[in-house]
Design goal:
single chain, 199 residues, alpha/beta, DHBP synthase, 8-stranded mixed β-sheet, two-stranded parallel ribbon, 10 strands
């Protein structure tokens, strides 16, 4: 059990070799520096065909990780303005800045999200974008409390309860995931907290 202060958790996340966990607006996240994403795959016993999400504090921090035309960036920015911060993950063409470890089976795409939780964004503002996923063993339901996470993943740094003065409003429903197609359309990969419908 490794309960730490907010400052210690941020320092551990910045160090790159430590997986941390913090609450988000959906379910608690496991997080690590993008170049160390394989640590999460090992921890969760996760299949390489299930990519991680890059979570950031602002759209500006995430756009360097994608590549597209000026017109595409305008469409993506409009979607971001409408739903971020929030429970929507945009799967977009990845730039060279995305480590292959984030999405081993298809390194050409990357999922991006900004959580609607002030504490999450405060952490991400200090650490920079992190590779994230729900806190659970692969194929099992997401863990919903820090206590459950500590039992399942005793080596992961979690926040000391005293640091959680205000818990984020938690939907307990994963984010909706949509993928951009080069023909200018979106595919819904997972209906989650935000209900979307495309023609």
């Amino acid at each position: 059990m490794v309960q730490v202060s907010l400052d210690t958790l941020v320092e551990a996340a910045i160090s790159g070799d430590q997986v941390v966990s913090f609450p988000t607006d959906t379910v608690p996240a496991l997080a690590v520096q993008p170049q160390q994403a394989e640590l999460i795959f090992q921890l969760k016993q996760r299949s390489a065909d299930k990519p991680l999400i890059l979570m950031g504090a602002t759209p500006e921090s995430l756009w360097p990780f994608v590549q597209g035309t000026v017109e595409e960036l305008q469409v993506w920015s409009q979607m971001a303005r409408q739903y971020w911060p929030g429970a929507l993950t945009l799967v977009l063409p990845a730039s060279e800045k995305v480590p292959r470890a984030m999405n081993p089976s298809d390194p050409t795409t990357i999922g991006l999200r900004i959580p609607n939780a002030e504490m999450s964004r405060a952490i991400l503002q200090r650490t920079g974008p992190l590779a994230t996923t729900s806190a659970n063993l692969s194929g099992q339901p997401p863990l919903l409390t820090m206590a459950e996470i500590e039992v399942q993943f005793p080596q992961v740094f979690t926040l000391d309860p005293g640091e959680l003065k205000v818990l984020p409003e938690v939907s307990r429903v994963p984010s909706t995931v949509i993928k951009w197609n080069r023909d200018g359309s979106w595919n819904i990969l997972r209906q989650g907290a935000i209900r979307l419908k495309f023609q």
